[in-house]
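Notebook, p. 212. Picked up where the previous page left off. The plan for this session was modest: take the two constructs that came back from the sequencing core last week, fold each one, and keep the raw output in the notebook itself so nobody has to go hunting through shared drives later. Recording the first one now, exactly as returned: residue sequence, then the structure token string.
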Amino acid sequence: MTKKELRQQIKQLKAMTPAAVREVEADMVFNKIRSMPVWQHAQHILCYWSLPDELPTHEAVNRWLALGKNIYLPRVKGDDLEIVPYLGPESLDDNNKFHIGEPVGDAVDASCLELIIVPAVALDKQRNRLGRGKGFYDRLLSTTTCPTIGVACGFQLVDEVPVEPHDRPLDYVVTSDYDSSVTDA
């Protein structure tokens, strides 16, 4: 299956999955992540502010901020992602090209990050990730060395994600019914 075909297949499955189901799956995913030593030791975490068709992150991001973690969100600048501190929902602006809630404020260097939570269209157990196709995360991940966790709903875990030479495998994959940190331990 090609990347384009897989994106289309997952898009159809997303359309059939109620938002309430995605919220339940998000709770399961982010509870698993909170129990991981890599999360517990990280103080500077990049997550994403979810779009309606993505695994919801809003609750987890706000909960982690309340727990004293330094949370960062991406902001699109040209073909790249800038890393910006998240200070709460009031610090977001969706007046941008993609109408995505992005943090306002000054960008920081990605070298401060200790963990990156990466959204995915699809994931596989070999820790490969299929994104939306713009390469934003591929470019960002090529510049960092901190651990990465790909997250998605359970139906987004597939047998095999098509990969290309520029695709970097993630360190962990977590869905509602799969956690590579437990499976590989």
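Okay, moving on. Second construct, recorded in the same format:
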Amino acid sequence: MKVLQFIIVVLLLSTPLPSAAAKTEAPPTSVEERRIRSAIEEQYNRLQKEGDQLKVEQMELKTLKQEVDKKLVQMQSLRQELSRLLNRKQAEEGKRVAELSKIYEKMNSVKAADLIKSLKPKLAIELLAAMNKKNAGKILDNLDRKTATKLSTGFTEFSVDQTPSY
């Protein structure tokens, strides 16, 4: 068997490799040589198909990568726009809270207290924080104990960086 393999190897080495330009091949001399040539051709064809398929997949991946990159740029642009709009909204809300706090300061403290207790706690705290401390104290004085305690506690936990949630 080893002798046969040695002969096949010698025959294969002595036989010139088929070139792309030359389409004529020497006829196989034995059945074993035909089988080997056939197996080599099948392997070559399979590798050629796999190579072509890899090229197609690489092109598809490049296209997908370009699309993903475009989408990322669009998303970053949208994120910046959204951030800009959110900042503008918060600034506008801050102005309105400041204006509203001035209105509440000018009101009778009993009426202001009655209105403040019906507001959302966060808005009420922001209004009181924006007011003159003397007027805020008068309003808290006219609130019921539970509401005044709740707003006072919220005022101590109030952060300037918090976003309004009216």
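Notes on construct two before I forget. The CA atoms of residues 111 and 139 lie 9 Å apart.
Flagging for discussion at group meeting.
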